[in-house]
Sequence to fold (753 residues):
Amino acid sequence: MTTIQERIQQKEGIQPLDVNAEVILETRGLAKHFELAGGFLGFGNKPTLKAVDGIDVVVRAGETVGLVGESGCGKSTTAKLLLGLEKPTAGQIFFKGEDFTKMSRAAKRDYRKNVQAVFQDPWSSLNPRMRVQSIVAEPLQIVTKMTKGEIKARVSEVLEEVGLNAYQANLYPHEFSGGQRQRIGVARALALNPEVMVLDEPVSALDVSIRAQILNLLVDLQKEHNLAYLMIAHNLATVRYMCHTTAVMYLGSIKEIGDSEPIFSNPLHPYTQALISAALPSHPDIEREEIILPGEVPSPVDPPSGCTFNPRCPVKIGDVCEQWAPGLTEEETSHWVSCHLYGDAKERFDAGEAIPAAAVEDDA
Amino acid sequence: MVDSPEQDRVESGDYSDREDADRDGFGPSTVQDDVILELKNLRTYFQTSYGTVKAVDGVSYHVKRGETLGVVGESGSGKSVTALSIMRLVPSPPGYIVGGEVILDGQNVLDLSDSEMAKIRGSKVGMILQDPMTALNPVFNIENQVGEAIRIHQNLKGQSLVDKIIHSLRQVRIPAAESRMKDYPHQLSGGMRQRVVGAISISCAPIVLIADEPTTALDVTIQAGYLRLLKEIQAETGVGIIFITHDFGIVAKMCDRVAVMYAGRIVETGDVRQIFNEPSHPYSEALLASVPKLEERTQRLYSIEGQPPPLFDLPPGCPFAPRCEYAQDVCREAYPVRFEIDANHTASCWKLLDFDISKADPEELAAAQSVSVTAAAEEQLQEAEAVAD
Ligand SMILES: Nc1ncnc2c1ncn2[C@@H]1O[C@H](COP(=O)(O)OP(=O)(O)OP(=O)(O)O)[C@@H](O)[C@H]1O
Ligand SMILES: Nc1ncnc2c1ncn2[C@@H]1O[C@H](COP(=O)(O)OP(=O)(O)OP(=O)(O)O)[C@@H](O)[C@H]1O
Ligand code: SF4
Ligand code: SF4
Ligand SMILES: [Mg+2]
Ligand SMILES: [Mg+2]
Fold:
């Protein structure tokens, strides 16, 4: 008889990050502004919604980067940009150092093959009229020149890899439980042997007791294939479990990014601190002083000037916060934060220095 | 904020210095001694074309005034059907309450006529079903919506109704309630909308409030605000809350006691600390080990493989056996009897009786077998009875 604790000990968690691993995916100043219908009586400028407003992320082989933040902060839009489902308004995406916009047609095809996705809702993301065999085979048929026989063999192989039986290939999605359906989603993403998987809330729709099945499957697959993951989640504890690197988003931009451990044990940005303080405890004796933020997240159509968090920031340090947009600065090793509490922007501002046009890079 | 003393505490597991103090972070405990709701051996079955679904099969739990009971368990384990049974809102057919008692404020509600029950619903026992952010109707103003909830149960009109509406809104601390009540939902912030939903659920001063997963779809900060509101209402009114959830974080933050359900039965109950510190049913232990922690990085989660059994075709014995690390032969033969680990802490598992059926009290053993037992277990049962005689 193996106890639950012994069973856990037998398995490995996420692998330590190799900082020298190849950079698979990188974004620089990536932005997506949606032009909304309307404008005043059809005249003048149409309002634009800044869903993603200049983000820089690096994802290495074998690394999981987590994107956290509240509803509407731009997580899914970032995912769609990386998947080529939305066109960036500004900024670039690099795949192994190559700029996507400058890629040849063949290289773009290669990119699409290498960057796969798993979505939140295993009920709506699988076509109910297709058998599992066809669902998993579809990307292989579209992208590769494999023969029918090869495709069939590959489908059985990936189904097995995600913990399903080959005979289940003949069933329809409704014949599976939620957890199994999410396994099918993972199998489909895995079929083309990608280097990156974009995981948009992969377990949020699942029963708590089966979430661990999928998270552990992702951990094991990453180890097996040295996969790079960009994982979106709003559950902070899940991010701490899965991610080597964590990026905290607010109103379309990254407020804090770096190694997950310092971010969770010593959050620097006032927004991250508030977010962690509000998260549910894992034990009844854990009592966090909750930092209650006034007001609500402002509209991304008309974001506040300066630091976009300034209207709600409990520790705002002065006018500099309303006028100078802080840039990301490396406050500790591998831990960047975008806030004037760090660095010397306040002194420079108070000394009457001219307003910088772009983000203020503090000398941390 | 995760400050460093807390970090130390998490790492060392030493919480001894905060035994009694403000332990849920919401102020002193509001639990009082009187039991206001008690379920005794409740059974609710559904008659379906594929068989009898034993959705609730002998559930007993109670709630005291000012207390919050968390009901946790896998999807389909019968949490909501239990709640609907308390409200007598189980759709019938196909659902039937086939046994047990639901004693609310000293009265078995299963004995009441439909019209008597209708009066109790909403007034003595209220239910928050939906996502609080979408529970309001966008075309009516707040006065109308809170007023409607009050009018269903109390014969108030004119100024006395308006006074009652204002009183309810003040109770959930909506500033300038007199003018605010003319607003429509879209004119209110998210936090205000939550407060209005809170006002509706307490407007008739229920003594028990059932919250069925009211916050699953919410953002962290909004969820935190809503939970805080529920606790405020509880501190003010002494309402007993049954919080149905999948989320052990909510249990840790909100609940005084916990009932863990699996396949239509309560498999473990205890004070919230007993459950977290010493989960005694393998399902509870597995569930707790399958959730990542925020305060420290979890090395590896435990994953409960497989799925819960279909409730219309329960095998004899412990329904968790196919997924249980500890299962032995006896587990597949007879449903485990309830074992008292400590005061207020019980679990139904053979492991706690060293997998020895003869250690079970024969009467309790017989009562636990709602499903037919195997011939082998039958024999052992008779032997056990003979020994007891
Ligand atoms: N096609 C679109 N047209 C206009 N606005 C859009 C479009 N897609 C997204 N948005 C807006 O962009 C912002 C970011 O949306 P996004 O879906 O990326 O948020 P998210 O962080 O994924 O939120 P959630 O946690 O709710 O999934 C939101 O304000 C959203 O309303
Ligand atoms: N109208 C019905 N007809 C037949 N079976 C039903 C009916 N309503 C519920 N059931 C069954 O009763 C069982 C318990 O359902 P219940 O809704 O109480 O689960 P739950 O614990 O609340 O799950 P969840 O966490 O998913 O809300 C399930 O197996 C369900 O299929
Ligand atoms: S820059 Fe100013 S307003 Fe923004 S988070 Fe830092 S202190 Fe707060
Ligand atoms: S009775 Fe047996 S199978 Fe059921 S939970 Fe206990 S050890 Fe596991
Ligand atoms: Mg999203
Ligand atoms: Mg339910």
